[in-house]
Amino acid sequence: MDPDSQSLDRPRDTREHHQDVINYRNRRQYSTDSETATDNTHRNTNTDIGSLLSDRESKFSTFGYGQSYPYSQHYTYKPTETLELFPDPDAPEKIVRHKNCCCTCKCREDKAEPVYNQPAPDVRSVQSPESDKNKDKFTIIYDQWVEWSGDTSMHGIKYIFHGSKISKILFLIFMLVFVGKLGWQLMESVKSYNSFPTGSKIQIADPEGPPTVTFPTISLCSHNHVTQSYLDKNPGLDELWQVIDSWDEKRAREIDFAESRWSKYSNYTYTQVLLDGGPDINNVMQCEHFVNECYENEVFGDSWLVRDLTLAGNCYRINPEGLLKGKGGDYGKLSLKLFADLNEYSTTNKEQPQVGFAVQFHDHEQYSSAMPTSFWMSPGLIYKADLSLLREKRLPPPAGRCNDTIEYNSYGRHEENSCLAECRDDDLIAKCGCVLVPPPMPQNNPSVEYKNCTLQQWATCGISAWRDFYNRYVNSTRTDKMCHCYPACKETFFKASLSSSILSGFYAQNHVAKLPAGYGTVEDVTSNLVVIDVYFANTQETEIIEIISYGWGNFLGDVGGVLGLFLGASAFTLIEFAIFHRDVCLDLHQQLLETNRKVEGERRRL
């Protein structure tokens, strides 16, 4: 079949184009008139056919209506030569390259001058612009994918488009499996990241400057709330106090404050009884720091020991402002001598199994009334307390659960136990209008007025309200949260390791002369004296820091690991992929513009 009669819809290879050139040379005709006219002015004019028909690897020239012919040869021709691309004897028009034509144009055989801007007749089947548009989109995207697969740094994807059919199918299956596994692994990583898992980091911090350590505030609470001598001075108060101090709800309801023996105490407050009848402050017989008495230490001044009223009775705070500093070991020892005064124990407290003191080591911004635990220290023993300083730092939500919005409350520095004590007071005020003992720092909660409960209020309302709060709080089957209390984001602890030994007879003998009035034997010493030596093993501080165990760095590491393992991709691959999508979008946009221009040109022609 003559190549010239082939449809231009089918792409033609290089050999066919070479044959076109040969056929063209054999059939070319010369127009004598036009040749004579043009040879005089354009003699020796040579035109490179490569300017019309470019190399396959570089450009394409358009003949007819959009058909591309790759050429890599040069051909010298005369300006009025007729290149007949549509060998139809009935066709009135031919495509010619005229001397005055700047591009391929249509000229009539009987005219020497070209007819400009007249497209050659389109003998191809006409397709709808929309179908050409969709076909071009698919071709552009596919060609871009093929090109990108060969250039990308992601391994394996190029084998889906290059190679034998079997290898393409196998690599496509492998790719789908790996992409599925990658998606599942990424979902697990996202779940782990969004759950904010936390862990703890422990580090040892040495103090700056000279090695010193800050001593804790030491709270000493006597197990005896009110002395027996005070109760004896107030007839009827002893029996009433037994009911009040035992928190016996049933017996408290039976008390008739209209009776004369109890009516005069109906307006007494719990704190008034503690202040007037509590143990003497002189029961702290001695406080010695290394070789100096505490009251002689310039650091303290007159405030080395203060009273603290709590639900547990009279307590005393040593080093209340946290000003005392010392060294580790024996060089920083703080020695305390306490007198239990068993002869003054009330009837209620004599029935309790413990005697002596409850001792707490804590930060100076905390108070014993908000601390749930303490060390019991009984008379006749010497205790050694080895302390270590521990600081905890917690994370606020969403990773942690500490409350970083409140720093202080009515019980000092905000922490979980002080928040619970404040919640209890709020509940008592709501039900009874008063509290048994006001908090130590009520100015930190100015919206609440803390009134002291009288003995009558406490007996008729307070005890039952307190027990109801306690039962509701400790009820583990509750589904609602009673008090919204969370740990502090920063908290200081003094961890104590205790050891004890019996006071020797010689030591007791030497302290007989130092006993208060009414005591004068060695047995009185061993039955009432408590000795506490407080040490710091070293001056180092231990910090426990809550950290996110699976953070952004871990997430990126997992994502990068699975991308590299299953797809051989990296961060540069993501950049390449973004550039690839940008190029595809630009090409599609350009193709859309060209299609619209073609449609608009076709409309104008018709």
Could you provide a short overview of the structure?
The protein has 606 residues and is of the alpha+beta class. Helices cover 35% and strands 19% of the residues. It starts with 13 loop residues before the first helix and ends with a helix.
Q: Quick one: overall form?
A: elongated
Mean of pLDDT? 77
The number of helical runs is 16
Q: Which radius of gyration do the C-alpha atoms yield? A: 50 Å
> What proportion of the residues is helical, as a percent range?
25-40%
**How much of the sequence is in beta strands?**
15-25%
Stretches with pLDDT under 50, minimum 5 residues: 1-14, 28-134
Topology:
Blueprint: H1 14-27, H2 32-39, E1 61-63, E2 67-69, E3 93-96, E4 105-108, H3 129-151, H4 165-194, E5 198-205, E6 213-214, E7 217-222, H5 228-233, H6 237-246, H7 249-254, H8 260-263, H9 270-277, E8 284-289, E9 292-293, E10 305-310, E11 313-318, E12 325-326, E13 334-339, H10 347-350, E14 357-362, E15 375-377, E16 381-393, E17 408-409, E18 412-413, H11 416-432, H12 455-474, E19 490-502, H13 505-510, H14 522-528, E20 529-548, H15 552-566, H16 571-605
Parallel strand pairs: 16-20
Antiparallel strand pairs: 1-2, 3-4, 5-20, 6-12, 7-11, 7-14, 8-9, 8-13, 10-11, 13-20, 14-15, 16-19, 17-18
Account of the protein in words:
The protein is of the alpha+beta class and 606 residues long. Helix content is 35%, strand content 19%. Strands 5, 8, 9, 13, 16, 19 and 20 form a 7-stranded mixed β-sheet that branches. A 5-stranded antiparallel β-sheet has the order 10-11-7-14-15, with helices on one face. β10 (305-310) and β11 (313-318) form a beta hairpin. The longest helix is centred in the C-terminal third of the chain and has 35 residues, at 571-605. It is elongated and about 125 Å long. Mean pLDDT is 77; it is low at 1-14 and 28-134.
